[in-house]
Amino acid sequence: MANISIPNLPSQTATTELDLLVITDSGETTTSKITKAVFLDGIGGGNLIAGGGTDSYTTTGNEAQVSGTNNLLLTANRAYSNSGTIGGSRNTILANGTDINNGSIIGNDCLLGGGAFFENSTRTASGTRQTLLSNQYMKNIPGNNVFVAATSRADSAGAQSSAMIASFNPRIGTGTGVVIIGGDGNVINGSGSASIIAGGAEHLDNSSTSINNVRANGMFAGYNNEHNTNAWAAAILGGQNHINSATRGGIIGGSNNTLNSTAANSVILGGISILGTQTNTAYVPQLVIAQYASLDFATDAAAATGGVELGGVYHNAGALRVRIA
After folding, report:
1. 217-224 contacts at long range (C-beta below 8 A, 24 or more positions apart)
2. Does residue 320 sit in helix, strand or coil?
3. Number of separate domains in the chain
4. pLDDT computed for residue 176 by the predictor
5. Which of 35, 91, 263, 279 could be disulfide-bonded to 246 (CB atoms 3.0-4.6 Å)?
6. For 62-117, what is each residue's pLDDT tens digit?
7. How far is CA 150 from CA 54, 131, 179, in A?
8. CA-based angle 274:280:284, to the nearest 5?
9. Burial class of residue 51, CB neighbours in 10 A (0-12, 13-18, 19+)
10. Would you say residue 22 lies in a domain?
């Protein structure tokens, strides 16, 4: 090849792994050649590939696919490590019995699917618009708009517009708008909707996977509490081993308390092994009136002057009374 200056060399619009580059050693004593593949090996932890809408991963690991649309990684029983897709839209990883270690996909309308095992990523079957961040041992997350973040060993039967955040071993069913935040081993079963479990451990919202009417429930902190198949718009706050079957019922604190399905609009406050069966009732193990000294009145009229409402409780020298006039 005749001598020619660099500006006068022909331009190239594409390269191959075997294209050659000229390099000079640091001592400027030796000029040699190196292939593009060898020169770029190890930069950024692996190969950087422009997305082209096809299965453009060329090796078995340490790759990143950047930008583009409709990028597709078909693993087909191949193992990829430390690989991922960044940016673009409608990016997909479909796996079939494949291990993808430390795999990730970031972008719009993303799908990670195929029922494969994804270490530090996800295990899913199908779905759209999913966001999965810093997760481990995920499976069966096929729903729409499912957000899973900083969560380990999550499982779903196909929830829609739901989330599992910073949890260990959570599980949600096929419901819509259900959320598990934190905690260990918490479960929202069935196709109920608009329920939340926040913190605590081994809570169960709906013990049956076939009941549809369990919705708008909440459980916060506590241990081994349950809303069963009749609960609706109900809440359990703290405590342990509670069972709530009541519509618009609530249990706060205590242990081993139960609200039956007949106890709509009722509440249990603390206590141990209290059974609630009546509607519009507040169950308490013991009632303490802290400001009793200011509630000592001789008559209903005096109690009224002192600010006691009709139906309110006061006392006369220790004798308990209810104001009725």
Report:
1. 217/192, 219/186
2. strand
3. 4
4. 84
5. 263
6. 444 444 555 555 443 344 444 454 444 444 554 433 444 444 444 444 444 433 33
7. 30, 11, 14
8. 30
9. buried
10. yes
> Which pairs with CB-CB distance under 8 Å and at least 24 residues apart come from 303-312?
none
**Residue 318 included in any domain:** yes
Is the per-residue pLDDT at 290 higher than 80?
yes
Sheet strands side by side (includes 282-283): 131-133, 147-149, 163-165, 179-181, 196-198, 218-220, 235-237, 250-252, 267-269, 282-283
Give per-residue pLDDT as tens, 225-255: 999 877 889 999 999 999 999 999 999 999 9
Whether 51 and 126 map to the same domain: the answer is yes
122 and 233 assigned to the same domain: yes
The residue behind tokens 């005749």 is 2
Tokens of 35: 């292939």
Burial class (CB in 10 A: 0-12, 13-18, 19+), 283: buried
SS3 at position 63: strand
Threshold 0.85, pTM exceeds? no
Find out whether 161 and 135 touch, Cβ atoms under 8 Å.
no
Report how far residue 294's alpha carbon sits from residue 192's, in angstroms, rounded to the nearest whole number.
Answer: 48
State the DSSP string of 122-186.
---SS-BS-EEES-BS-B---SBS-EEES-BS-EESS-BS-EEES-BS-EE-S-BS-EEES-BS-
Cα 57 to Cα 22, 214, 314: the distances in Å are: 27, 45, 79
Q: What's the CA angle centered on 42, arms 36 and 47, to 5 degrees?
A: 65
